[in-house]
């Protein structure tokens, strides 16, 4: 048991594969999670993120590959031999034990006699000291969630795994817990690995996000990196929304490509392009667009010939659907801050944006990847 | 008229419940009432009220010896069938192995087989093995049919157990044994207790299979059956009533404890 405390350091997954029969849940995944970071595995359900988490926890064995914690190979060690604790999706609090005993469970199993002080500290941390004598079923969902967190944190693990920890909470509570979890992570300094399908949750909390799809990591980076410069159509669509316009690289201008989008030329920084040949998708986030009346002068990249198809006023911003001459509808979010009267349906407009905001994706990608909403997740959110 | 029909509408369920309970309880009330009958050896017609039977429950010949046998057999059959049945239930409910579905089916067989067939074939089995009918063959026979009920009851409880609780225990440094001891067993315990009670009452109650395999030994049901020919002594009513009252008290006590816990 003593050497367990010495087990710490970065978590490394090396070429980890997990198959169930013909189905590959996780495919040749390599990943390093630095000690002390708040790391999110983000992806739709069935993308392999929970399987990855379970392999790290020791609840599943990889079919191939190795998992290291610091210098130690933990691929095949038992869950109870790892200094890793998990906050389970539905909390998995022991219904026959009081809250106090739930939190003390891990300490007692490690042979620690004096559990009172650490348990009370953990209860303090989640601000539920007054519930120590209750049973889990007498607590609300949000309270159970915090107890599950306290039960894991009290052990001071090298790594804390969170499996969709906020999935069962309502929206308001979820927002509050996001902030609280981030604060607690800073407070205790433990590496948090957070699995979620909620992109907003991942972006709010994590330092680093790995976007997973079909058992593989699509892209890894800080929330801002992923959002500003997505590498694939899946990331562009799964993290926020994107307008992807098909085009060809027709020339170069210094550090920029000149991209031909249905006969209109725009510029795109070479280092923001992930295209492999001349075929490319130019990507622009909807809030980066500016709409202007045809007569007005604008700078940056310009696409002309648009026509307002739909206007939705949603308070902080107005969302427009703009039909372009080549038949594509572009999404534009305009902040309601400049006093310009909103455009109305049927108006002819130009669309412009700062050239630096454009990102380029491979032209052979599926522009719709990552946009479809999983019906399972709709049901979950309704709960 | 309208008020009467309205009264009926409102109290229909109560009236129905009253009739149903009366129907169910009349035999029990009859048994209790006749335990106070000063009826002599054949307790068939009401003669006069007396406490004598209750003060002297072993008064009739062999009645307490029969009762003792039934309790002993019931206890042993419960013990063995609960232990074996719980282990089988865990094997079927928690592990995948070759022959699992066959085992599952076989477990149902003693429940589906008519008791008279089971009793007769067990007897012929014992005789083939040159084992004389008596106390231990009866225990073995009771374990055979009690096991099925234990397996079914415990399996249902295991099936309702969230496997994530055990995973959480393992995640919190409990090894396999500690997980079983600290999480699985306490959570399945109510199912095991229910199974044990069921096994005991089945064993205590059994006449047909016992009659085949007990030889000259008498159990309580056997005693009642045999004495029915010449009139059941009131002591049998006393014991029957006492069993009913004890069982009822256990249920009521369980309810009170359960309610207190829920309030806490």
From TrEMBL, chain A:
Pfam families for this protein: ABC_tran, TOBE_2
GO molecular-function term, one example from the UniProt record: ATP binding
Entry keyword annotation includes Cell membrane: yes
GO cellular component terms given for this protein: ATP-binding cassette (ABC) transporter complex
Acidic residues composition-biased segments: 365-383
CDD domains referenced in this protein's UniProt entry, alphabetically: ABC_PotA_N
Keyword vocabulary terms for this entry: ATP-binding, Cell membrane, Membrane, Nucleotide-binding, Translocase, Transport
Region described as Disordered: 364-383
UniProt-listed SUPFAM superfamilies: MOP-like, P-loop containing nucleoside triphosphate hydrolases
Name of this protein: Unannotated protein
Source species: freshwater metagenome
Automatic annotation (TrEMBL), chain B:
Entry keywords, A to Z: Cell membrane, Membrane, Transmembrane, Transmembrane helix, Transport
Organism: freshwater metagenome
Major place of residence: membrane
Membrane topology field: Multi-pass membrane protein
Family: Belongs to the binding-protein-dependent transport system permease family. CysTW subfamily.
Pfam families: BPD_transp_1
GO cellular component: plasma membrane
InterPro entries: Bact_Polyamine_Transport, MetI-like, MetI-like_sf
TM region(s), chain numbering: 12-36, 73-93, 105-129, 135-154, 183-204, 238-258
Record-given protein name: Unannotated protein
Location of the ABC transmembrane type-1 domain: 67-257
Cellular localisation: Cell membrane
Family annotation (SUPFAM superfamilies): MetI-like
């Amino acid at each position: 048991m003593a050497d367990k405390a010495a087990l710490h350091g970065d978590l490394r997954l090396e070429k980890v594969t997990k198959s169930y029969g013909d189905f590959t849940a996780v495919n040749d995944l390599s990943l390093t999670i630095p000690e002390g970071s708040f790391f999110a595995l983000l992806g739709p359900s069935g993308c392999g993120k929970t399987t990855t988490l379970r392999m790290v926890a020791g609840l599943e064995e990889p079919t191939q590959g190795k998992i290291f914690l610091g210098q130690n190979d933990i691929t095949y060690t038992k869950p109870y031999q790892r200094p890793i604790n998990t906050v389970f999706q539905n909390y998995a609090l022991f219904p026959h034990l009081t809250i106090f005993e739930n939190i003390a469970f891990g300490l007692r199993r490690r042979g620690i006699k004096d559990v009172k002080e650490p348990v009370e500290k953990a209860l303090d941390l989640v601000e539920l000291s007054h519930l120590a004598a209750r049973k889990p079923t007498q607590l609300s969902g949000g309270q159970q969630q915090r107890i599950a967190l306290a039960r894991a944190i009290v052990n001071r693990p090298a790594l804390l795994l969170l499996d969709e920890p906020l999935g069962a909470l309502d929206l308001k509570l979820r927002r509050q817990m996001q902030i609280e979890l981030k604060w607690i992570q800073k407070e205790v300094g433990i590496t948090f690995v957070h699995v979620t399908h909620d992109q907003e949750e991942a972006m709010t909390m994590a330092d680093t996000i790995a976007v997973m799809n079909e058992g593989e990591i699509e892209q890894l980076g800080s929330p801002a990196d992923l959002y500003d410069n997505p590498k694939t159509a899946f990331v562009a669509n799964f993290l926020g929304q994107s307008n992807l316009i098909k085009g060809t690289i027709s020339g170069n201008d210094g550090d920029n490509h000149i991209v031909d989008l249905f006969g209109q030329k725009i510029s795109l920084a070479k280092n923001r392009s992930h295209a492999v040949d001349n075929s490319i998708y130019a990507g622009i986030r909807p809030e980066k667009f500016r709409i202007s009346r045809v007569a007005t002068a604008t700078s940056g990249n310009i696409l002309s010939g648009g026509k307002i198809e739909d206007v939705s006023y949603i308070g902080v911003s107005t969302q427009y659907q703009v039909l372009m001459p080549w038949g594509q509808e572009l999404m534009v979010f305009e902040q309601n801050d400049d006093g310009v009267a909103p455009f109305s349906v049927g108006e002819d407009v130009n669309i412009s944006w700062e050239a630096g905001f454009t990102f380029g994706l491979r032209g052979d990608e599926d522009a719709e990847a990552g946009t479809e909403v999983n019906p399972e997740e709709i049901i979950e959110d309704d709960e | 008229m309208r008020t009467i029909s309205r009264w009926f509408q409102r109290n229909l369920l109560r009236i129905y419940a009253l009739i149903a309970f009366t129907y169910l309880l009349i035999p029990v009330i009859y048994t209790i009432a006749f335990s106070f009958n000063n009826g002599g050896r054949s307790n068939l017609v009401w003669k006069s009220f007396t406490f004598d039977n209750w003060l002297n429950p072993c008064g009739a010949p062999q009645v307490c010896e029969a009762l003792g046998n039934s309790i002993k057999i019931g206890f042993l059959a419960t013990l063995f069938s609960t232990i074996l049945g719980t282990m089988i239930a865990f094997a079927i409910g928690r592990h995948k192995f070759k022959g699992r579905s066959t085992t599952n089916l076989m477990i149902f067989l003693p429940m589906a087989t008519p008791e008279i067939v089971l009793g007769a074939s067990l007897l012929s089995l014992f005789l083939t093995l040159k084992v004389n009918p008596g106390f231990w063959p009866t225990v073995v026979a009771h374990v055979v049919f009690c096991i099925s009920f234990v397996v079914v009851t415990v399996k249902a409880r295991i099936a309702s157990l969230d496997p994530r609780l055990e995973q959480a225990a393992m995640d919190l440094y409990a090894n396999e044994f500690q997980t079983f001891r600290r999480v699985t067993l306490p959570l399945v315990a109510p199912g095991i207790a229910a199974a044990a009670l069921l096994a005991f009452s089945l064993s205590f109650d059994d006449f047909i299979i016992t009659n085949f395999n007990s030889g000259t030994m008498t159990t309580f049901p056997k005693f009642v059956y045999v004495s029915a020919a010449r009139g059941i002594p009131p002591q049998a009513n006393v014991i029957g009533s006492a069993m009913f009252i004890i069982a009822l008290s256990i249920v009521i006590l369980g309810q009170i404890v359960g309610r207190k816990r829920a309030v806490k």
